[in-house]
Amino acid sequence: MAQPPAFVFNILETPEDQGQDPSPYDESEVHDSFHQLIQEQSQRAAEEGLELRVLPQREPGPETLGASGSGHQALLGPEGVPDYSTATLRILASMPSRTIGRSRGAILSQYYNRTVRLRRRGSRPPLGGVGRSARPSLRLYDLELDPTAFQEEEKRTLLVKELQGLTVAQRDHMLRGMPLSLAEKRSLREESWTQSGKQRGPQGRRGLLPCCSRLRYACGLALHSLGLALLSALQALTPWRYALKQIGGQFGSSVLSYFLFLKTLLAFNALLLLPLLAFIVGVQAAFPPAPADSVPTFTGLELLTGGGRFSHSVMYYGYYSNTTLNQLCGPPLDGSQCTPEAGGLPYNMPLAYLFTMGMSFFITCITLVYSMSRSFGESYRVGSTSGVHAITVFCSWDYKVTQKWPSRLQQDNIRTQLKELLAEWQLQQGPRSVWGRLRQVAILGFVWLLCLGTTLGCTLAVYAFSELMIKNPVSAEREWELLALPLVVCLLNLGAPYLYRGLAALERHDSPILEVYVAICRNLILKMVILGILCYHWLGRRVGALKGQCWENFVGQELYRLMVMDFVFTLLDTLFGELVWRFISEKQRKKRGKPEFDIARNVLELIYGQTLTWLGVLFSPLLPAMQIVKLLVLFYVKKMSLMANCRAPRRPWLASHMSTVFVSLLCFPSFLGAAIFLCYAIWQVRPSSICGPFRTLDTMYEAGKVWVRHLEKAGPRVSWLPWIHRYLVENTFPIYLVSALLLAVIYLNIQVVKGQRKVICLLKEQISNEGEDKIFLINKLHSVYEGKERSRVGRAQEAEMPPTLPADERDAR
């Protein structure tokens, strides 16, 4: 029987390499023994294998002939799977992608070579000046890729010896990166430390005793453990960390997005409140103005109306003075004139009020844009998510979780994630008929007409009632009647979303995501139109109707009342409305049970409340503090109602883009509208002449111009400040230039993202082509083997057949 061909690596050696040591470095016994292992491995590979074993004999059939004839198809098994030979399977099993991670010996060999390279990095000579045997060899890779070549203990010993030559930091970093268990890493660290201590014990290193080395190592471990403990404590202090995990595990990412958005709003309000407290409220509280002649007493009704005693506090715009605040006066020198103490710094309250409001809104704008861009980057990642199911199944479990309750919570979270990922496949339905599509379009048009008609009716009702309030002013004795307009607005904002929700049941959208987006759009139109009517009512009608009065205080009180009534109605709807809706759902729809959490309505309530805060911060600087308290209470109330009265979505869906949509709605309709409202109030509306820091000016913006004129008279040392104000603030060209640069940067970023997508597509295509090349080479290998096998079988059959005589000899016989 003929000997099958074997694949052996023949490496030529130059004459100068003859008789040379395996390595030019003097690495003592470790490297020499490893070189011997390389040689033994090469001999073993040459003896054993990389041969094409003979497959069992088969009857030649059409499938076999077709495969061998084409030269591009492998032998097929009973189920259409390629039937490779034993030698081919051995070659495939020794590939790098299939070796590392299968056995611990291959891992130890690989990391041994890494430690050798790390230790030689600083003193390695140029590659051109060393012999061929010292250069990287295929035998080294052969050792790494064959985990059964040597015993595991020998590789472990070599790795421990190489780890001893590294510093403590390099050793820890190398052990951390090994794909081994914690017990194996701990054992390797102890062995390397113990043996290095034995080797350096008699002589010491740099005069240090073994006890000092042990103490230094113990201190390093203690500091590292302390750092990890502090990091864990900081993570534990994250607000509502376990509550958010519980919500996400039981109700999915769609409901969790609401609570994450509430947490984001809490951070925005805290960021807005800090500069207001530091530069406006705190300063005015430290230097209070002269008290009014008659200050009303506190009756308790102020908690709802915002008037009364609150009007004479730092709560509203009218309390702040229009003077320059100084430190306390010193003793009079020669008369009754009060003089500031030496070194007193003047504090211009009108200028501080204007600049603090502007800087607070600017910081909020930057934070919003950054949050939106970061959310876009997390939601719309470049590339595909085709392997996310396998990652969720095999890589989601956190093995550091040891307690029963966190492990159960993690199980619920993974199960919910899998439901959401698999739900995307169920959304793909077949095309509808023409009649079905016409029917769906007709229903959508009818529902949208009803919703827009409802919005128009609510808008007309708010406008008519606001005009009625102007014609019939409320006296101070009937202050409770001021709650009428906020009451009407809150009733409309509460009832209309329920009507939209009932009409949405007629549409029967295929995708739950589309259903939520449509509901958000309808609720957003309703609330933004109502707020637009109220802004016109305040700045267009109330300013003229309240001549001789402090209209800024009235606008601040109106916004306070709207916030309070919105909070009260939200609590009532959460505690009682959702409970009643649960009873109705359980009674009429026994199979479905509890109702689902209305994400669209609850999110728009948060956006509506935040818009009220931004609209009123100019007239009531403490409204962000009220919003913070409101959000804190809402979180726990909504969580309690969610657990008791709601169930998980009937059709799970992955809310990967919901946070991006929420932040975008918060930025563009909400923040942008509030910024336009406040800019109009600052630049165009005349302030009240009896209250506030701008009482003597034509507009609030004139406070900056007055300050610039004072700087021009102050001297040449501060002349650059008026120049900046004249050419960078009042001139519109820098604004247009900055806008153009911003648009250019956005365009370039879009083009970069497109280029990355194209590169990723090309790389994916290249990976696919390389996979096809590998299949082609394996099939070619089988074709060569089949050809040689057929020729061998043919020669054997010819040898076994008896020799035949020529025809003339047969005739002669």
Class computed from helices, strands and strand pairing: mainly alpha
> Span from first to last CA?
37 Å
Rg from Cα:
40 Å
Q: DSSP strand (E) fraction? A: under 5%
Q: Report the average pLDDT across residues.
A: 76
* Topology, number of strands: 2
Total helix count? 26
N-to-C order of helices and strands: HHHHHHHHHHHHEEHHHHHHHHHHHHHH
Main sheet characteristics: 2 strands, antiparallel
Shape: globular
Major sheet: arrangement of strands: 1-2
What is the percent of helical residues? 55-70%
Q: Runs with pLDDT <50, length 5+?
A: 1-38, 44-81, 122-150, 200-209, 328-344
Organism: Equus asinus
InterPro entries: TMC, TMC_dom
Protein name: Transmembrane channel-like protein
Biased composition (Acidic residues): 14-27
Account of the protein in words:
With 813 residues, this protein is an all-alpha fold. It has 26 helices and two strands. It has a two-stranded antiparallel sheet. The chain is globular. The N terminus is likely disordered. Belongs to the TMC family. It is found in: Membrane. InterPro entries: TMC, TMC_dom.
Q: Layout of SSEs?
A:
Layout: H1 28-48, H2 62-70, H3 86-93, H4 96-99, H5 104-120, H6 138-145, H7 152-164, H8 168-177, H9 182-200, H10 210-236, H11 241-286, H12 302-305, E1 324-325, E2 347-348, H13 349-379, H14 388-395, H15 404-426, H16 434-471, H17 484-507, H18 512-545, H19 551-588, H20 599-616, H21 623-645, H22 658-683, H23 702-714, H24 720-729, H25 733-800, H26 807-812
Helix pairs in contact: 1-6, 2-25, 5-7, 7-9, 11-13, 11-15, 11-20, 11-21, 11-22, 13-22, 14-15, 16-17, 16-18, 17-18, 17-19, 18-20, 19-20, 19-21, 20-22
